[in-house]
């Protein structure tokens, strides 16, 4: 097997459709893997699509047809097989080699392999890939098959392309095209490994089991040679002959070290080498790093309804995590280091699961590598989201080929925890008027209940399959709180975030609240004068329906709606953080009835007002800090139970947590009015309530008092009213700034109770990172905040300026 990468010398040009005159007859240097937008940007033909309103100026690209071409040298040997392999073509493509059409593509999510023996020249070869308009293709399919409902204007449900490339309520409408994954020429004799599927499990006695399934393709089926499949793992080698183009070899590892999710143990992995061997030697090879663990989901009905609880190595896991979208709208810019930083941010926020949402992509090997290494469980959606999908051709065959390839590709990943059929489509059929609009036409149900579960059962029987998210078994409504998974979107769309407590779901796999990106990110990309929440560039980066209206209504019960934009920016970021943390703490307080909370969303794909905790410039919004606290292994939270307030103690450690909780009711000025100590014991991986005397929950003056509960290093500070209802000191803080190695230390002292103290340090230096945010400070307390930055500030005192050192109190005066 000889592999020749074909990434050099590519040129891009317009074939047909709309384009500026400056591009007519012009050939632009192209990067492969890459996309048309990035090539035009690099050549200076377009503005950065993320800048101000540049997205709108690029709508012409939706209808343009493109040509990529290059030349390469190759040699041809008698009897040799030669394949052109495109790991990813986005999306409607025709491939020509030396003027011969060798293949076409209409699916971004699968590999295309074309036999080019007849077209390949001995010497110089010309390779041309022509891309049609994905939007035009999708509309033509819709015209033939009949319209099916879908979110947002374009018919993304008619084509196997990243749905969010057509625009979403957090992402731009920049419909990419190009050779988005590696391309190579493969020349080979004898045979190759067409597919390798290591199924990795653990026997009851602790023996690790690697059952390798391999599909073999012969170069010349009429002249097959005898072949053997060889598996090497942990110093041992097992070999079996390949029969009927398939081989199966099982290797055992006694007393295998177990792979655990982060927070539950280590992530040891074992190298596995799979070789295809002929009498002349090895003809093809595949390498993997596996982790031994068992994983399933408990969905056995109980006295409440139907649970949805992940069980890893026999241990029940509360899934703490977030939904994941593509980390850049232009996928080929995403690097392994970038993915590692993002997953590290999830881990640092005490998350143990990421859900790859069904409107994006099957992620890169780099993404799964990083999750394998760090112990982050991956919930993997199949790529169906927020639309009714036809089951007819040309889609059915593409979906089957795509699913078979991706399931086989990912079977051996220790981090992969679940295959999920779709995002919100069964819910859509039940509640969004689809049934009337469809009038009996197919909408995707057979994908979720027949095709996909059959493929998972055949190719990856080691994992649980869920038909969708949300999903409830049987005849129950798909978003029923008592069964399976639930998405909570009444909050944000229609009701105040305190209504998270209206439901106790078995597993909440989507919920969230919007907030703008950090100041540095926003002002780098939006240059409105003046910059306001309704200025044109700002609104171009707010894609949610009535997004600003919902932000303002979300503030109404909790915080003022400031007139100054900088104050509005801080208030909406703060409200986002509070809203989502409120939901997380509610869900965690009900463990084990509620077994997971996956926030919408961890990351952004461009600089937008969105639900993300980390913006597109990798800066952590206040929400990230709130999640780190709400997902902490040990948590104290005040919750309602049976008509009264109680303290819930959450212990996500392997050890029992016991001691005394010290509770005070004090004034904002620091006078202690009541004080009690209550013993508590919470078993490992449990949550329990601690009943406190009514006297600490009964303020004499709710507008000027606060409850403080402390156990070991954990604390909860609980005001008795919303900020609009209490008498917070508008300027409670004093501070001084000292230079330290790598940045500055800001020493803050509170003269009165200060709620949610932050340092918005990126307003001073774009690279500034603060270790902690949203800190409640009681009267008389001091706290040091360390700011890491490479910028030498002319006047470090700017870090203590009221525009940078802020708290919720100061919003009461705007």
Automatic annotation (TrEMBL):
Database matches in Gene3D superfamilies: Galactose-binding domain-like, Glycosidases, Immunoglobulins
Record keywords: Glycosidase, Hydrolase
Domain annotation Beta-mannosidase-like galactose-binding: ranges: 27-181
One GO term of the biological process aspect: carbohydrate metabolic process
Glycoside hydrolase family 2 immunoglobulin-like beta-sandwich domain boundaries: 201-293
Acetylation as UniProt keyword: no
Family annotation (InterPro entries): Beta-gal/glucu_dom_sf, Beta-mannosidase-like_N2, Beta-mannosidase_GH2, Galactose-bd-like_sf, GH, Ig-like_fold, Ig-like_GH2
Family per similarity comment: Belongs to the glycosyl hydrolase 2 family.
Listed name of the protein: beta-mannosidase
């Amino acid at each position: 097997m000889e592999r020749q990468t074909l990434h050099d010398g590519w040129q891009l040009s317009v074939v047909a459709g709309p384009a500026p005159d400056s591009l007519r007859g012009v050939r632009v240097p192209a990067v492969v893997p890459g996309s048309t937008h990035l090539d035009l940007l690099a050549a200076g033909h377009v503005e950065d699509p993320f800048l101000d309103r540049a997205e709108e100026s690029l709508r012409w690209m939706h209808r343009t047809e493109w040509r990529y071409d290059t030349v390469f040298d190759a040699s041809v040997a008698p009897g040799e097989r030669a394949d052109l392999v495109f790991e990813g073509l986005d999306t409607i493509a025709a491939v020509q080699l030396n003027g011969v059409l060798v293949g076409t593509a209409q699916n971004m999510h699968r590999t295309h392999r074309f036999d080019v023996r007849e077209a390949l020249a001995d010497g110089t070869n010309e390779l041309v890939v022509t891309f049609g308009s994905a939007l035009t293709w999708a509309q033509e399919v819709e015209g033939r098959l009949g319209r099916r409902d879908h979110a947002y204007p374009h018919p993304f449900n008619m084509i196997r392309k990243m749905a969010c490339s057509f625009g979403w309520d957090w992402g731009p409408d920049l419909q990419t095209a190009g050779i988005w994954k590696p391309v190579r020429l493969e020349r080979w004799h004898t045979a190759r490994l067409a597919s390798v599927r290591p199924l990795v499990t653990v026997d009851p006695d602790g023996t690790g089991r690697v059952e390798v399934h391999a599909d073999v393709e012969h170069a010349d089926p009429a002249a097959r040679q005898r072949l053997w499949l060889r598996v090497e793992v942990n110093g041992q080698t097992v070999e079996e002959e390949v029969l009927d183009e398939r081989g199966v070899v099982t290797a055992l590892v006694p007393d295998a070290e177990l792979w655990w999710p982060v927070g539950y143990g280590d992530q040891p992995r074992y190298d596995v080498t799979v070789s295809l061997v002929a009498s002349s030697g090895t003809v093809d090879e595949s390498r993997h790093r596996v982790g031994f663990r068992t994983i399933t989901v408990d969905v056995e009905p109980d006295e409440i309804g139907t649970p949805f609880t992940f069980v890893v190595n026999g241990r029940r896991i509360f899934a703490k995590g977030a939904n994941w979208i593509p980390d850049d709208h232009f996928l080929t810019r995403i690097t392994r280091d970038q993915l590692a930083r993002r997953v590290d941010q999830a881990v640092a926020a005490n998350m143990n699961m990421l859900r790859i949402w069904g409107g994006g992509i099957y992620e890169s090997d780099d993404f799964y590598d990083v999750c394998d290494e760090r112990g982050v469980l991956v919930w993997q959606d199949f790529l169906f989201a927020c639309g009714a999908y036809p089951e007819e051709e040309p889609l059915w065959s593409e979906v089957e080929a795509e699913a078979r390839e991706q399931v086989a590709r990912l079977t051996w990943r220790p981090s992969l925890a679940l295959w999920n059929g779709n995002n919100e489509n069964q819910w859509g059929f039940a509640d969004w008027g689809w049934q009337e609009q469809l009038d009996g036409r197919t909408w995707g149900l057979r994908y979720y209940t027949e095709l996909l579960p059959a493929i998972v059962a055949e190719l990856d029987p080691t994992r649980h399959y869920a038909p969708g998210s949300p999903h409830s078994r049987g005849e129950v409504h798909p978003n029923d709180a008592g069964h399976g998974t639930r998405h909570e979107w009444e909050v944000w769309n229609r009701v105040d975030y305190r209504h998270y407590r209206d439901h106790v779901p078995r597993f909440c796999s989507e919920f969230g609240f919007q907030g703008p990106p950090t100041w540095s990110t926003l002002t780098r990309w939006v240059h409105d004068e003046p910059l306001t929440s309704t200025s044109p560039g700002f609104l171009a980066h707010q894609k949610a329906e009535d997004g600003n209206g919902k932000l303002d209504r979300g503030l109404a019960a909790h915080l003022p709606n400031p007139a100054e934009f900088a104050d509005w920016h801080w208030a909406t970021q703060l409200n986002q953080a509070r809203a989502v943390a409120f939901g997380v703490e509610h869900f965690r307080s009900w463990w084990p009835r509620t077994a997971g909370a996956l926030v919408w969303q961890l990351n952004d794909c461009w600089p937008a007002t969105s639900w993300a905790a980390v913006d597109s410039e990798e800066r952590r919004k206040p929400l990230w800090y709130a999640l780190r606290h709400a997902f902490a292994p040990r948590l104290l939270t005040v919750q309602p139970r049976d008509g009264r307030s109680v303290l819930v103690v959450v212990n996500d450690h392997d050890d029992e947590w016991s001691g005394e909780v010290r509770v005070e009711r004090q004034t904002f000025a620091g006078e202690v009015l009541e004080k009690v100590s209550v013993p508590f014991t919470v078993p490992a991986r449990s949550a329990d309530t601690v009943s406190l005397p009514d006297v600490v929950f009964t303020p004499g003056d709710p507008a000027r008092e606060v409850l403080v509960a402390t156990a070991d290093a954990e604390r909860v500070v609980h005001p008795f009213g919303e900020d609009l209802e209490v008498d917070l000191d508008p300027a409670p803080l004093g501070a001084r700034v000292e230079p330290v190695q790598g940045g500055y230390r800001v020493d803050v002292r509170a003269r009165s109770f200060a709620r949610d103290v932050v340092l918005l340090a990126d307003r001073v230096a774009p690279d500034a990172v603060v270790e902690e945010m949203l800190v409640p400070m009681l009267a008389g307390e001091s706290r040091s905040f360390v700011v890491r930055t490479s910028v030498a500030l002319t006047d470090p005192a700017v870090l203590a300026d009221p525009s940078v050192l802020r708290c919720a109190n100061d919003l009461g005066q705007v």
